[in-house]
Amino acid sequence: MSACLPQVLMGAQFTTYRIGGPLDEAYQPTTEAEMVAILRQTQAAGKSLTVLGWGGNSIIASAGIRGVTIITRKLDWVEPITDTRIAFGAGVHLAKSASTGLKYGLTGGEFMIGIPGTIGGAVRMNAGALGQETADLVRSVNLYNLETAQVETWLPEQLGFQYRKSLIDPNKHVVLSAELEFQPGNPAEINATMTKSVQFRKSHHPKEPNGGSVFKNPSKEMPAGKLMEELGAKGQWREGGAMVSPLHGNFIVNVDNATSTDVLRLMRRMQQAIKDRYGLEAHPENLLLGDATPEELELWQALTAGH
Ligand SMILES: Cc1cc2nc3c(=O)[nH]c(=O)nc-3n(C[C@H](O)[C@H](O)[C@H](O)COP(=O)(O)OP(=O)(O)OC[C@H]3O[C@@H](n4cnc5c(N)ncnc54)[C@H](O)[C@@H]3O)c2cc1C
């Protein structure tokens, strides 16, 4: 398979947490055809598959990923379809999709500007900000369905978008591209909204490596970050090299060579504290990928129990 990356790569190179061990067999396809060929060969060989976009929401196990890992970042093509509809390859960074909207004077994608992720990851996660989410824009998604071994086009009603989730299951469906529908807008206003968003993130999000919000907000009135602040966790709670960010209570920062175990232990402590103090269930937003240790599996099962 030609897109196979020759040297041993570490997951840490491909996640915003900068955590993750060796990727046994990593591919970075540059075309959809190449991606589908890799997927078909992976299936035929009976190998396990992991898909990685920007790694903006992923905790890769420190033991790494066995089997095939496909990194989508090079599928970063953009193609206008109509005056308001644009198709994006799965690996297009969300900053690029937002700027593409601006380039064509289209509004609706401004919220994507500061989210470190790809179109594929955003569809799977229904990424959102500023009161908007990916579901608002998606008109269709092209994916490779491992169950049917076919490329299929899914419409919004098949994608089952909910708060930070969709029916895209990366074990079965690999997003190849998505068509997003924007609205005609005022470039100066679009630009101003994006600039404001970038500035807000600069001052409110930590500079140390992190994976964004670790938990979904238990409710709008009770954001997880606020609860952790009340619990005195910000800048205080720590497991190994992972710490609750002093700047944002729902972010864990990698301050000193944190491992995946450190992050999961800290997440579990945070989740239990929210349950004990407020009686609320905090559901993980971060995802665990790769070859987890027995302790990590146990922590992950406890973190996701009943969710
Ligand atoms: C500083 C910071 C700020 C953030 N702010 C926000 C925010 O405001 N709003 C928000 O929603 N999120 C936010 N995030 C989280 C993250 O950026 C989003 O969840 C983003 O959508 C993840 O995209 P990704 O490509 O990085 O996904 P990854 O982390 O690479 O993958 C996430 C999941 O999607 C799967 N996946 C990736 N690509 C594909 C594909 N092509 N087909 C099928 N499955 C795929 C992976 O297997 C994995 O299960 C933030 C993260 C950071 C670090």
What is this structure's SSE topology?
Blueprint: E1 9-10, E2 22-27, H1 32-44, E3 49-52, E4 58-60, E5 65-71, E6 78-80, E7 85-89, H2 94-103, E8 106-107, H3 119-125, E9 128-129, E10 132-133, E11 138-145, E12 150-154, H4 156-159, E13 173-181, E14 183-184, H5 187-204, E15 210-213, H6 224-230, E16 238-239, E17 242-244, E18 251-254, H7 260-278, E19 287-289, H8 294-304
Parallel strand pairs: 2-5, 3-5, 4-19
Antiparallel strand pairs: 1-2, 6-7, 7-13, 8-14, 9-10, 11-12, 11-13, 15-18, 16-17, 17-18
Helix pairs in contact: 7-8
The structure holds flavin-adenine dinucleotide.
How would you characterize this protein structure?
With 307 residues, the chain is of the alpha+beta class. It has three domains: 9-71, Uridine Diphospho-n-acetylenolpyruvylglucosamine Reductase, domain 2, CATH 3.30.43; 78-189, Uridine Diphospho-n-acetylenolpyruvylglucosamine Reductase, domain 3 (2-Layer Sandwich); 207-304, UDP-N-acetylenolpyruvoylglucosamine reductase, C-terminal domain (Uridine Diphospho-n-acetylenolpyruvylglucosamine Reductase, domain 1). Helices cover 29% and strands 25% of the residues. The chain has helices spanning 32-44, 94-103, 119-125, 156-159, 187-204, 224-230, 260-278, 294-304; strands at 9-10, 22-27, 49-52, 58-60, 65-71, 78-80, 85-89, 106-107, 128-129, 132-133, 138-145, 150-154, 173-181, 183-184, 210-213, 238-239, 242-244, 251-254, 287-289. β16 and β17 form a beta hairpin. The chain is globular, with a radius of gyration of 19 Å. The chain starts with 8 loop residues before the first strand and ends with a helix. The model has no long low-confidence stretch (mean pLDDT 96). Flavin-adenine dinucleotide binds at residues 16, 51-58, 72, 90, 115-118, 120-122, 124-125, 127-129, 168, 170, 173-175, 205, 210-212, 287.
